[in-house]
Queue: 3 jobs
Job 1
Amino acid sequence: MADDRRLGYDTLDGNAAGGVLRDLFGTDVTAARSTCAGCLRVAAVGELALYGHQMGTILRCPRCDAVILRLARVRDRYWLDLRGTVSLVIPV
């Protein structure tokens, strides 16, 4: 994999995406459990590796580095791509 800093990404954990995810879902989802479609690892959203960029947010599996979630806000709407997630279980 290329050096993500060279590509303009800042690497953090998934908790850093808590604010924008709360805006989208209306609740805190950092404790939600996500199952990776690549390796089937179950992890809290807050444990995922976050790659922030001007174009949006990318959350990756900490085990296999597969993209779990992509999120971008464009003007008056959000674009959410969960194709790397088998399931997302959000506690109520």
Note: The chain has a mean pLDDT of 88.
Job 2
Amino acid sequence: MNLFLTEISRSLSENAHAVIIMDRAPWHKSVTVSDNITILYLPPYSPELNPVEQVWDYLRSNYLSNRVYETINDVFDACCDAGNMFVAQPEVIFSIGMRSWIN
């Protein structure tokens, strides 16, 4: 996580400030955070607030469920194929971020 945050910090313009929203996964802990970065943590047990969780839910529901894979590489290939089909549907991507309770 420290390396990731360092790279973000370096890529920012001189007067820019990044706000990064993270869940509280154990691997999302960092010892140091640069002055030009603020981390906002999502509340515990709130996957509905994390857009990537919505993406994985969509991929599982539409492309990855009820299948048996022979090897781990088959799983990786299926995930890549599902991701490629997903990104070809901008209307679906947009709709995943829209929730009635957000408006």
Note: Residues 2-43 form one domain.
Job 3
Amino acid sequence: HPAVEFLFLGTMFHEKVVRAELGPGNVQGVTCCSTFAGSDLPSLLADCTVALFPSYIEGFGLAVLEQLAAGLPTVAYDVSGPRQILQSMGARLLTPAGDPAALAARAAEILALSVADYERLSAECREIVRRYRWSQIASDTLERYRTALQSLGQESTPSARE
């Protein structure tokens, strides 16, 4: 679609290399940012509507969380890291690993959503990230330790830091 623009972030390659990989007929509307400061990420994502995470070899996929935090529905391959993060979204954002056509089709579906449906999906994406806040992770970890201690028949005692 000629109106679609693509922003490739963190490619680690010069834009000429990325454009060469895409081929001469596929470079219109493509911008590459091989590296960037973390503080620049919110402004880089501000004009985006949907994000793609086409990796099937990265473990956790911190970029998925970053994109979701920006309210971007993030389409990813159904592999361990993204699956763990996006499990509550079911098949809405996950596609078969290694199938770029399915990834593109899912992104096109998101782009075709009504404004109201897109806003609901965007809000769900932001909500997912709440589970990964450090305060939530610490609280969940502490609760698991307490549960484990209780199952061993030991009383959990509040720590000095609570």
Note: The first strand starts at residue 6 and ends at 9.
